[in-house]
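Memo to structure team: turn this sequence into structure tokens by end of day. - J.P.
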Amino acid sequence: MTILLLYTAQQSLLSDIIIWVMMVLIMGVFVFLVFWQNRKGKELKNELEQLDKLNKHNVQNEFVLKAMKIATWHMVVETQEVMYDNDFRERSNDWIADASVTNGKIDRGVGMLVEQDAQRVAQSLRDLCSGKIEEYHEEYRVCIPGTERFYWEESYATVAERGIDGMATLIVGTSKRIDDRKNMESALVDARYRAEESDRLKTAFLANMSHEIRTPLNAIVGFTSVLPDVQEQEERKALLDLIHENTQKLLRIVDDVVTISKIEAGNEEMDMSTFDLPTLLTDLSAQYAPKAKPGVVLTTSFALQALEITSDMNRVGETVKHLLSNAVKFTQAGSVVLGFDEPHDGRVDIYVRDTGIGIATEYQDKIFESFFKVDEFIPGAGLGLSTCRTMAYSLGGTVVCTQSKIGEGSTFTFEIPLK
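Reply from structure team:
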């Protein structure tokens, strides 16, 4: 009985020990699970924070790309495959070479470039892939299918990944439309050219004016100084005639400069009136006939005996005067004809035809530029035809050299509206 009780007590103690061990193990497992869960919770929280930061970073990057209107792309060097990741380029031409067009082999994208740019861009990409260069930067023109137009684009690229041999395996890059910048650059180049041209014209103006004004002025001063010492009436009259002639030359030069300046500045208002064109041209012909050289005949040829036009009679007359003056000056023999043709489309062509020295083809448009002279040794400031064209434009018309041949003469046509 005693033995049985002792055995039972031992069994009970063993059970208690086992229970306590089990409880300790359970508590240990519980503590471990609590610790593990807490650690995983921190890791998960950290991952969520990193993910949130990454999302925010991507949003910021996307916002920057969108604000700068940039596209990002990558190219797998081994396959030469190009893929667009983001594309925020502006599409001002209603078309752009986007992912749907350019994703694929690099040759496909390069083939869309203007021929003069394609070879250069392709070579730069090959040099980047082969390691000859570390960065790629190109500006090029992309053709718009179905048209002869193109748009400008700028790209940057660099190596993103390399293999164990150090060679590039992945290229990343950006592209951006730069039409506005190119237009601005072109405008700046034009502005610089105009500024340089203006400076050139100013220099030419000063050089020509100093020479052209000094010539008649010297004659006026010189002849005036000797006039008191001349007693014979014929000699005095000859000197006075020369003084008057040079005074008129001087006035004409100044008048031309003032006229051009006023018209171009828009400060001179037109005095519109209705007048008979044949009457005006007849009066001008009679005025210049005595100035023609011996043997040169100045005649008129009108398609109509009467033709009323509404314009600024003074400007029309001044334009014709300049044309007649040149014709008379450069015609040594033959004739000078002033006339007009039948009106057409509400306009009339007034012409001055001469048998003078003629003008070479390469100069027939340049002669209308201010201060341009085919022969520097012939008197004149080179303002006559420039004044003609300026006044013609102000009247809504044009002045052109319609026909000219060296040694055979020239024809200048002054076209103006009838009203």
